[in-house]
Design brief:
The structure holds 2 protein chains of 2 kinds.
Chain A lengths: L1 E9 L13 H10 L4 E7 L5 H11 L2 E9 L5 E5 L3 H13 L7 H4 L3 E3 L5 E4 L12 H10 L3 E4 L9 H5 L10 E3 L3 H9 L9 E2 L14 E6 L4 H8 L6 E6 L2
Parallel strand pairs in A: 1-2, 2-3, 7-8, 8-9
Antiparallel strand pairs in A: 1-10, 3-4, 4-7, 5-6, 10-11
Chain B lengths: L2 E2 H8 L2 E4 L7 E2 L1 E4 L3 H7 L4 E5 L5 H8 L4 E4 L7 H10 L3 E3 L4 H17 L1
Parallel strand pairs in B: 4-5, 5-6, 6-7
Antiparallel strand pairs in B: 1-3, 2-7
The chains are: A alpha/beta, B alpha/beta.
């Protein structure tokens, strides 16, 4: 087994709020420099820059997991992470059908698809930061059915979190983990007698700028950076586990 | 004059989606909010709660806070689980095609009239 530093919540320049410098090339360069072994690219409601980042990651010797930060109908942010891009792209096309507000880049920012050489390949038209038509339960169900992992994003933040939007985690929701933003937020939730013990905790950077990559990360004790290894660690299976959290 | 849920239903033409046997509940005030965390923290017992959220957690919040009723504004459809739960918990779940501002305004007037009556 080995120790892997993972940052499983990173935006690229495809997210309107993501800095234009967040190109796959620069992200991989930065992650490499920081010794991050596993990344998940998680743009809002889209996975258009995943493949390029994966390819560059491969060349640089780090694992890029396909991901997306879904905005549910209730405006809860939910991270989906998959082993392969296929099922994620299917989920993306389903989500796109329900996004009916066009982006206005001068207000929200550009939604840029780029290639490995950082050239602009195109722009995504619908505004990606609006709510999808999926309820939280439907989203988690679809992710599970397609073999992915569901992670409730930044649960201790005052906006777009399952707690801010829905007051509590709906009973029976099949989450694979929760992402905690900081220690005081986590303590606050626990002081409110919220039982989070059944969920593995992840810490990730939610980076929108290059300098934010890796500001928070999770240490995994696993055999390789493969998706299945991460999934096993979340379930503490076969000697795999989450070893610690950095930056919080 | 005291107001109950049935008065509200009739006065502003609300659709009763669930909890129709509990329209005699007394309404003491109102609260608008779509962040359930905020509603849990700040709404009061006896409030009629106006929201665009349709998730079943709204029923749990209404039970917890002992709300008189929930009004789903903006012509949104309640989730089937919410209807089932509201029926089970005896919480009137109401709907309006009007947006939250209009529903609140009409209710506010109704309260003023009630106080002056």
């Amino acid at each position: 087994m080995l120790e892997f530093k993972a940052d499983l919540h990173i935006h690229t320049c495809l997210s309107p709020c993501g800095d234009l410098d967040m190109t796959p090339k620069k992200i991989i360069g930065k992650a490499k420099e920081l010794g991050i072994g596993i990344l998940a690219v998680t743009d809002h409601n889209s996975c258009g820059n995943v493949k390029v980042t994966q390819h560059l990651g491969e060349e640089a010797g780090l694992v890029v997991l396909p991901g997306m930060e879904i905005t549910t109908r209730e405006e809860v942010h939910l991270i989906a992470i998959f082993g392969e891009i296929g099922p994620l792209e299917e989920l993306e096309s389903f989500i796109y059908e329900g996004l009916d507000v066009p982006n206005r880049p001068e207000i929200f920012g550009y939604q840029v698809l780029v290639n490995e050489g950082e050239e602009v390949e195109g722009f995504v038209e619908p505004l990606l930061i609006t709510a999808s038509k999926l309820s939280l339960e439907e989203a988690v169900f679809r992710i599970k059915e397609a073999g992915g992992l569901s992670i409730a994003a930044h649960i201790d933040r005052q906006s777009y979190s399952v707690f801010s939007q829905l007051g509590f985690i709906p009973p029976g929701l099949n989450l694979d983990a929760v992402e905690v933003w900081d220690r005081s937020g986590y303590s606050r939730l626990r002081e409110e007698s919220i039982d989070l013990s059944r969920f593995p905790v992840l810490t990730s950077s939610d980076a929108h700028f290059l300098h934010e990559i890796g500001r928070k990360s999770t240490l995994f004790y696993i055999q390789s950076g493969a998706f299945e290894e991460v999934a096993k660690a979340l379930r503490s299976q076969e000697g795999r586990y989450i070893k610690g959290h950095c930056g919080i | 004059m005291e107001l109950n849920v049935e008065n509200l239903v009739k006065a502003i033409n609300l659709e009763v989606v669930a909890g129709g046997h509990h329209l005699n509940r007394r309404v003491k005030g109102g609260y608008c909010g779509d962040l359930l965390s905020d509603v849990m923290a700040n709404s009061k017992e006896g409030d009629v709660w106006i929201t665009v959220q349709t998730h079943q957690n709204i029923v749990a919040v209404a039970v917890l806070k002992e709300h008189a009723a929930i009004i789903i504004a903006g012509n949104r459809e309640a989730d089937p689980e919410s209807i089932e739960k509201a029926e089970k918990e005896g919480i009137p779940l109401l709907r309006s095609p009007l947006n939250g501002f209009l529903v609140s305004g009409m209710l506010y007037k109704l309260f003023e009239q009630g106080e002056n009556a």
